[in-house]
TrEMBL record:
Keywords: Disulfide bond, Glycoprotein, Golgi apparatus, Membrane, Signal-anchor, Transferase, Transmembrane, Transmembrane helix. It comes from the Eukaryota. It comes from Oceanodroma tethys. This is Sulfotransferase. GO terms for molecular function: [heparan sulfate]-glucosamine 3-sulfotransferase activity. Its EC number is 2.8.2.-. The gene is Hs3st4.
Length: 260
């Protein structure tokens, strides 16, 4: 069974993190998302164990399913599997995350309403529709409260999706330390891909082409009305501040905004 899980968040950078940590010789991870603690729980732990890759002594088994972070039953279920499981959450500016989430849905269902329409309960009053999953997922403080009932903060690592792009080696150093691994994945594993706009993994032995994330990553976001973005920022700000206080980490999403 896995000793560490990447539990969230959707469109935060979980795939990039998983690919990077899999470059470590002491990590074995499932490539696909098992969705055990949200959709397949009734299949039982034996089923889950069989989904896991085979490991040697001293190797860590991992999986990632970003929807765990927002699944109410997940903390209790994971805790009952193993209360010392290490949890990793990749977070990014909730406004960008929401737009990225919408962009992904749009690519599958081009007929859906515009982002602006879905984001508001009432556009004239500026009431944000917090029940829309693209927006709800980004209320990180709300979801984290649920996890903290079962797990101490010391067992949860928060990775910045932004820094995973600007300084992948720095974020990976924290991940490896948190997992108790030697720092083997370093800057020499990454190079910046200008067309995609984010780092790609080099193959350690230069044996084959570098691994970039697939076509579904780095999609161009639709242009969103600046007023809508402004209202969303205002909506998220108190939750972001609460999240910084809960985690003891400032992700500087507000600063980014004043730079723009």
């Amino acid at each position: 069974l896995p000793q560490a899980l990447i539990i969230g968040v959707k469109k935060g950078g979980t795939r990039a993190l998983l690919e990077a940590i899999r470059a470590h010789p002491d990590v074995r991870a499932v490539g696909t998302e098992p969705h055990f603690f949200d959709r397949n729980y009734e299949k039982g732990l034996e089923w889950y164990r069989n989904v896991m890759p085979k490991t040697l002594d001293g190797q860590i088994t991992m999986e990632k399913t970003p929807s765990y972070f927002v699944t109410n039953e997940a903390p209790r279920r994971i805790h009952s599997m193993a209360k010392d499981t290490k949890l990793i959450v990749v977070v990014r500016n909730p406004v960008t995350r929401a737009i990225s989430d919408y962009t992904q849905t749009l690519s599958k269902k081009p007929e859906i309403p515009t982002f602006e329409v879905l984001a508001f309960k009432n556009r004239t009053l500026g009431l944000i529709d917090a029940s829309w999953s693209a927006i709800r997922i980004g209320i990180y403080a709300l979801h984290l409260e649920n996890w903290l009932q079962y797990f101490p903060l010391s067992q949860i690592l928060f990775v910045s999706g932004e820094r995973l792009i600007t300084d992948p080696a720095g974020e990976m150093a924290k991940v490896q330390d948190f997992l108790g691994l030697k720092r083997i994945v370093t800057e020499k594993h990454f190079y910046f891909n200008k067309t995609k706009g984010f780092p790609c993994l080099k193959k350690p032995e230069d044996s084959s082409a570098p691994r970039c994330l697939g076509k579904s990553k780095g999609r161009t976001h639709p242009k969103i009305d600046p007023d809508v973005i402004h209202r969303l920022r205002k909506f998220y700000k108190p939750f972001n501040v609460m999240f910084y206080q809960m985690t003891g980490q400032d992700f500087q999403w507000e600063q980014e905004e004043s730079d723009k």
